[in-house]
Amino acid sequence: MDFPITDLMDEQACYQRLVAWLHPNGLSCPACQARERLGIHRRHRQPIIDYQCGNCGRVFNAFTGTALEGSRRSCVQLVLILRGFAQGVSTNRLARELGCDRPKLLGLRHKLQHWAWQLLPREVLPDQEVEADEMFQNAGEKRDSASRSGRSAKAACQQAARARFVRAGSAASGRRRRSGKRPVAHTSGTQG
């Protein structure tokens, strides 16, 4: 038995969450930035409301001027998509879970990533001086962990080195066999 998660979520609560994320300082007119005298223009797509500014007459909704402008997805789908993107879920998996078109979802992902990149502060590090450990995120991490199956890390490293040497030697001898020539043995000393 399947339970689609989109049927279990509240559309109004998702809309309010989206408005809070997109407009942390409160909803305002995208043309004149007015916060007062915003009247309801129409409610044709509940819970999304179209507002009309009392100052300049502009009609807009919560998505106007954002990366979600023009989106025809439900608020529940948008919240689940943003959640999936933030968690690093693949576009293919999200498309399967939500039953939507993967190329269109990938386009939305690129649009949102570009929008987020534009909003990032350009000052990466606030200091004028930078320490080396601030520059490299992976500093101090080990590349491969040694297998601890009853032997020391040194023994595991030596075994890996032997395996590399054996593979390199077998590749060289394979090349000689294919050419049909036998390797010449060099001996030191006098002939007798």
Question: Could you list some keywords that capture this structure?
Answer:
192 residues; mainly alpha; 3-stranded antiparallel β-sheet; elongated
Word description of this protein:
The chain contains seven helices and three strands, in the order H-H-E-E-E-H-H-H-H-H. It is mainly alpha-helical and 192 residues long. Strand 1 and strand 2 form a beta hairpin. It is elongated and about 80 Å long. The model has no long low-confidence stretch (mean pLDDT 76).
What do the pLDDT scores average to?
76
Query: Strand order within the widest sheet?
Result: 1-2-3
Q: Give me the number of helical elements.
A: 7
Range of strand content: 5-15%
Task: Give the helix/strand class.
Answer: mainly alpha
| Main sheet attributes: strand count, strand direction, barrel closure | 3 strands, antiparallel
Instruction: Compute the CA-based radius of gyration.
Output: 31 Å
Low-confidence stretches: none
How much helix is in the residues? 40-55%
Instruction: Encode the helix/strand succession as letters.
Output: HHEEEHHHHH
Question: What overall geometry do the principal axes of the alpha carbons give?
Answer: elongated
Distance separating the two termini: 88 Å
Secondary structure tally: strands: 3
